[in-house]
Amino acid sequence: LDEVTPEVCLEGRLKELKLGPEDFKYVVMGHLHLDHAGGLRLFEEAGTEIVVHEAEYKHVLQLQLDEEKQQANLYAYSPPDWAFLNRRRPLTVYGDQELLKDLWLVSLPGHTPGTMGLMVRLPHTGWILMTSDALYAHESYGPPPVGTPVTWSTEKWRQSVEKIRRLASQRDAFIFPGHDERGIKHTGEKTEF
């Protein structure tokens, strides 16, 4: 945490890029754990559409209602980060959906009930798949897949890793795990870290 200075946090990075919350049409939340939703409050009044998987949204609403569950999940969730979604309902999605042309939201439950990735086709790179924490690090990819530090459902997580593998193979996609500086490149049957 010593390396987490204001300059590397979301607000500082946006200022460095001369951007503000009002410059974004959508903020897609891969899931609502505190290390992914920590900057969400910046967009509370910006008019930005917050996109959350329906299962994730229902899960955090239930946490807010159940104090015992909330205490058990405090290591991963920080309700003040997303509490404003009670009065400003997010755009909830379920399953795989195309949000914009060549930009897909991909349902990848397991790490949390509503983890989702983002798959986009870029002009020079081709397809990329940002997995959020469905793949915590490139080592998680396997085969066989290797678990993540926090897993809500091991079986759903395994199924999501297989889905990532299938999508990446079909599209020769470049995969970006949620907590890794190394990506995974698929070209035909070949996989490179």
Provide key terms for this protein.
193 residues, alpha/beta, seven-stranded mixed sheet, three-stranded parallel sheet, 6 helices
C-alpha geometry: globular
The rounded distance between the terminal residues' Cα atoms is 27 Å
* Cα Rg: 17 Å
Mean pLDDT: 90
Q: Report the structural category.
A: alpha/beta
Helix content range of the residues, please?
A: 25-40%
Strand order of the largest sheet: 4-5-6-7-8-9-10
Give the number of DSSP strands: 10
The profile of the biggest β sheet is:
7 strands, mixed
N to C succession of SSEs: HEHEHHHEEEEEHEEE
Low-confidence stretches: none
Continuous helix count: 6
Strand content: 15-25%
